[in-house]
Design a protein that fits this description.
Helix 3 packs across helix 5 and helix 3 crosses helix 6. By secondary structure, the chain is of the alpha+beta class. The chain is globular, with a radius of gyration of 17 Å. The chain contains six helices and twelve strands. A hairpin with a 2-residue loop joins strand 5 and strand 6. The strands form two sheets. Strands 1-2-3-7-6-5-4 form a seven-stranded mixed beta sheet, sandwiched between helices. Strands 11-10-9-8-12 form a five-stranded antiparallel beta sheet, with no helix packed on it. The longest helix has 18 residues. It binds biotin. The site of biotin has 20 residues, from helix 2, strand 3, strand 6 and strand 7.
């Protein structure tokens, strides 16, 4: 079903880079990642895209939810079939963060990446990325708070939108199209992802608290390794966790 505010799928494809094979635009779904994983399991090839106007059960990292008012956000999932070795899959998700930062810069918004790939406008999160692998496919899900006018009280200190930041509304098709263009370039040059990530990181070089299930560590964030994991000053390597930047 077509969204009232997205172009129809064939028109949308004309705005997107040619490597995007097929697109599904949904008015409402539970989660574009879930739809994409189901589509991938049914045989969707590399470079298929799902976008939605509204998600009732949007998935966030570490089992959280990702909720946004209908029509306010860019909610997309991209189906990839990378032939790279599995260790490299984490870097692809980081590449999505870099692509978003590059496109936002082109639209006049200076963003930065909080490890692993929360897209931040200073201290507030404007976009999140959730990569999920299944059956040889990698689904990269991206949620961007585009024209969100206000956040609930419990999120207002930590979340923001492009509109709240810039005082104007943004075109989601332009954002989507530019994001995919940058992402395609990075995907085609995997060796460039880590250096580009370092350029946009607001975490590397700062002191961080890493909250793991069983303990918390405080240390200097030194670098990312070849899989996208965070390397700390004492040599510890963190693969999946929440961090607090202590500055
Ligand atoms: C995070 O917690 O930072 C990641 C959020 C990822 C949300 C996006 S919205 C589109 C896609 N579909 C989902 O269910 N989740 C991702």
């Amino acid at each position: 079903m077509r969204s009232a505010s997205w172009p129809d799928e064939q028109s949308l494809l004309k705005h997107l880079p040619p490597w995007v094979l097929e697109a599904r635009c949904l008015v409402e779904t539970d989660s574009t990642n879930r739809v994409a994983l189901e589509w991938a399991a049914a045989g969707a090839p590399h470079a298929c895209l799902v976008v939605a106007d509204y998600q009732s059960e949007g998935k966030g990292r570490l089992g959280r939810r990702w909720l946004a008012p209908a029509g306010s956000s860019l909610l997309l999932s991209l189906i990839l079939r990378p032939d790279a070795d599995p260790g490299y899959l984490g870097l692809i998700g980081l590449g999505a963060g870099v692509a978003l930062c590059r496109q936002l810069a082109g639209m006049g918004v200076e963003a930065a990446l909080k490890w692993p790939n929360d897209v931040m406008l200073q201290t507030r999160k404007v976009a999140g990325i959730l990569s999920e692998a299944a059956g040889g496919a990698l689904v990269v899900g991206v949620g961007v708070n585009v024209n969100v006018a206000a956040f609930p009280d419990d999120l207002a200190c930590e979340a923001t939108s492009l509109m709240l930041q810039a005082g104007r509304s943004f075109d989601r098709v332009e954002l989507l199209s530019g994001f995919l263009r940058h992402f395609g370039e990075l995907y085609g040059n995997p060796a460039g992802i880590a250096p580009a990530y370092r350029r946009w990181s607001q975490t590397l070089g700062t002191r961080v608290r890493v909250v793991l299930a069983e303990r918390a560590i405080e240390d200097q964030a030194i670098d990312i390794d070849g899989t996208g994991a965070l390397v700390l000053g004492a040599g510890e390597v963190v693969r999946a966790a929440d961090i607090v930047q202590l500055r």
